[in-house]
Amino acid sequence: MKTLLIGLLLLAGAATAEEGSVTIPPVTVPFSAYASQAARHYYETDLRDVHPDFPSLAEARAYYDKWNADQAARAKQNYAVEIHAETIGGVPTDVIIPKGGPAPRNRNRVLINLHGGAFLWGARDGGQAESIPVAALGVIEVITIDYREGPENHFPAASEDVASVYAELLQRYRPENIGIFGCSAGGILTAESVAWFQKHNLPRPGAIAMLCSGAKPFEGDSAYLAPILNGDKPVTPQDAVARLAALPYFTGAEIADPLVFPGVSDTVMAQFPPTAILTGSRDFAMSAALDTANQLNRLGVEAELHVWDGMSHAFMMLSQLPEAREANYTLARFFDRHLGMKPKG
After folding, report:
1. Does the first or last residue of the chain, that is N or C, have fewer Cβ atoms within 10 Å of its Cβ?
2. Hey, CA dihedral for 169, 173, 178, 183, is it positive or negative?
3. 281 within domain boundaries
4. 228-262 as b/e, with b when 16 or more CB fall inside 10 Å?
5. Domain limits for position 101
């Protein structure tokens, strides 16, 4: 059984009140006793968080494109759906429909998926891997958007694409019957989209979900501890702060802009619809997810937080894991409870 011997130095020197830093001595950390055997096997043999440093964007895209294709293929084996490409609002999308069509209660409902991938990759296969389980378990149509990414495009191109699709769907669906969800970068884009809708006077959707993500940068304890717990190299404070801001898509954007990270503005966040936040205890984005959930609750927004012990970033895409099925079922049930409800106020 694999365990980790951790000798993690967050900052050199002894802890001080000003810095709040701490030196962690070597400690052996076993894998979670609460995780499934399938999760343990994945952790020991194929954990995605451990990967080489890619010398070029082309090589990184090739690596993650293959990974996403593998997850999409596995999802198609485990869940019965039909998929077709469709251009909506001038934006390419894939439409995922459960075999036999949506359930009667969902015929006037739809979900929008915003795939992850660091705003650099993830279109098509990545979006399908995220959407197929939710479509099948929720017996609901899911539309995954191939939004514009960096470095070819920059903020706010993706927000504009989501708004274009959303505006066209509003001709077919009431806003309270539309849900939006995304994983990792797609979770950030989900939050950005709600802020974008506010600024451009589009009605807010019925509910949203952020998976392994939040409405703010990936900082906090998990940014440092999760890579180590997953067997990867330590992250410096400088790297943690720059993790998102340095992405090519955000070139020229301001972190303090609520259209980039809505969590910087209580005013924007207070107008969010019911929100589900799902993450894992070994997800480097967990702290951002937790703080986003706390902020929403403080502001009186209905928010659900679900955390799976031992799970790493984007574990919902791993159809072979019981935890992934449970997370996607939790997500489907959340939307089933909230779509169709009239906004308060």
Report:
1. C
2. negative
3. yes
4. bbbbeeebeeeebbebbeebebbeebeeebbbbbb
5. 52-338
Both tokens of residue 239?
A: 């790297």
Closest alpha carbon to 139 in 98, 108, 110: 98
Q: Are 114 and 147 in contact (CB under 8 A)?
A: yes
DSSP state of 176: G
| CB atoms closer than 10 angstroms to residue 48 | 17
Copy the structure tokens of residue 290: 């937790």
Q: Are 247 and 150 in contact (CB under 8 A)?
A: yes
29 located within any domain: no
Supply the pLDDT for residue 52: 64
The dihedrals phi and psi of 169, each to the nearest 5 degrees, come to -65, -25
Element (H, E) at 259: none
Closest-CA residue to 313 (of 288, 290, 281): 281
What is the number of domains present in the chain? 1
> 289: domain CATH number?
3.40.50.1820
Spatial neighbors of 341 by CB under 8 A, at least 6 apart, are: 176, 206, 274
DSSP β-bridge partners for residue 340: none
Q: Does residue 272 sit within a domain? A: yes
How confident is the model over 191-238, as pLDDT tens digits? Answer: 999 999 999 999 999 999 999 999 999 889 998 888 888 887 777 766
Centre a 10 Å sphere on the Cβ of residue 198 and count the other Cβ atoms it contains. Answer: 19
Question: 167-179, pLDDT tens digit by residue?
Answer: 999 999 999 999 9
Segment 17-50, tens digit of pLDDT: 446 677 777 788 899 999 999 999 988 887 755 5
295 within a domain of the structure (yes/no): yes
Block residue for tokens 């939040």: 214
- Distance (Å, whole) CA 298 – CA 88: 36
Reported pTM: 0.92
Q: Which residues of 130-161 are buried (b: 16+ CB within 10 A; e: fewer)?
A: bbbbbbbbbbbbbbbbbbbbbeebbbbbbbbb
